[in-house]
Amino acid sequence: MSKRLLGVLVALSLIFTACGGDSDSDSSDDTPAAPATSAPEPEADEPAPAPEPDDEEPAPEPDDEESAPAPEPDDEEPAPEPEATPVPLTASFRGVTETEIRIGMTSLDAEMFGFDQGDLASKWQVAVDAVNAAGGINGRMLVPYIDVLNVIGTVEADATCVKFVEDKMVFAFVGWLREDNELCYTERNNTIAVNGNDVTPEAINRSNGLLFATEATKLGIQLNLIAAAAADGLIDGKRVHFSILASEDSLTDPLVEALEAHGATITSVSRVTAVDDVQAAEANHDVIVQRIADEDPDLVYSLEPALMSGAMIRAGIDIPQITSESDEDLYLNLGVDPTAIQLHVYAPEQIKTYWDRGDDPLIIECVENYNNAQITDEDGNVETVNVTEDPSQPINLSLVVRACQTVWLFAAIATAAGPNLTNETFLEAAANLGSIDLPGMSAASMSEGKIGADDSPLVKVIWDPEKEEFVSAG
User: Fold this and answer.
1) Quick one: 87-216+350-456 is in which CATH superfamily?
2) pLDDT grade for 75, boundaries at 50, 70 and 90
3) Predicted TM-score (pTM) of this structure
4) Cα separation, 164 vs 174, whole angstroms
């Protein structure tokens, strides 16, 4: 997953108003002349007499040195403005004291699928330590409570949520969750959640504005997909069949509007109702593909491209298809060869790509923090964990950077919220944050109504049959 801390700069401006000078009446011909024989030489501190009319030059303007009052000496500096009195830190909200902010954190253990993810808790702890080493959040230190959960299921995640919000009284959740487990925090316990994973439209709709994510939302990703495909000339003037999950039908209208705005004509919309049962899902797509064959569109846009591709191959039709799905396992598990059809895949740039290029200073900082950290295990043993120790496991790198993305996003918003940290000030800060830098993202921002931080454009990827994965098209 591809996936930079915001510094907040305050500019002070001074407005100067220029005043107009006096009129030139003291050199006018109407001014009476003084007698030439009796006029004494004026002293420097007395006003000069009026000039003779016509044949005399007007009196020159007095030099700055003769003006009153005299200016301050050049070598004196202006008096400094008094420093603002710092706002005292108080226990402003649940989980926020004068000295600390308590947060609950979880990471997901996928060892059951054969992934060696190393010490998952340490990845999040090191990201927190980096924030605290830089002064914390407006002087308060982050105090994390970290649990590692099984990647499958919701019971363990819900139990941990209850422990965090009721026993530990955390201010916010900052971690990695899936399957709408954020709702235990946002919907049921009025607690802010910042997820390092993608979030669903269902979770967004039910979270009362308390849910944030590092990943772009599904709507954001699909809008980026349409923009990328349109830039490659795949949409303008094309007749398009649009296929979407029935559970995500709220995305249909904005995505259809985006397609039409880029010059597409929608032939029809299909809604897929079965995905958990593979056989039922395949049968559902076989029916949809028959409709597509009758319509004969120029392009198919499917949010379930592996199933759609399999149905096309079975039906013997090959209509170009666009998608943002680059998870090779989805295709391989269904026996789909992505090179057997005209599949145009656009995806976020991989974190490993940023790392390999070496041009993302925030990724470098994140990884160096982790590589140099001393981790103490449950038995009291101290070890240094190196993220690049096993290059065959790029997921280790991805999880380290994901932890930095999530913790640093929370820190950026909480810092902007100021010393009086509450749910309300956090939400207001997020709505006004603007552009921020996060590791593994070419662009990121938060604004009013925006859930996912990542604004990175999608890039074209192609299938590498040797690696059996999608790689950058260059």
Assistant:
1) Response regulator (3.40.50.2300)
2) low
3) 0.74
4) 11
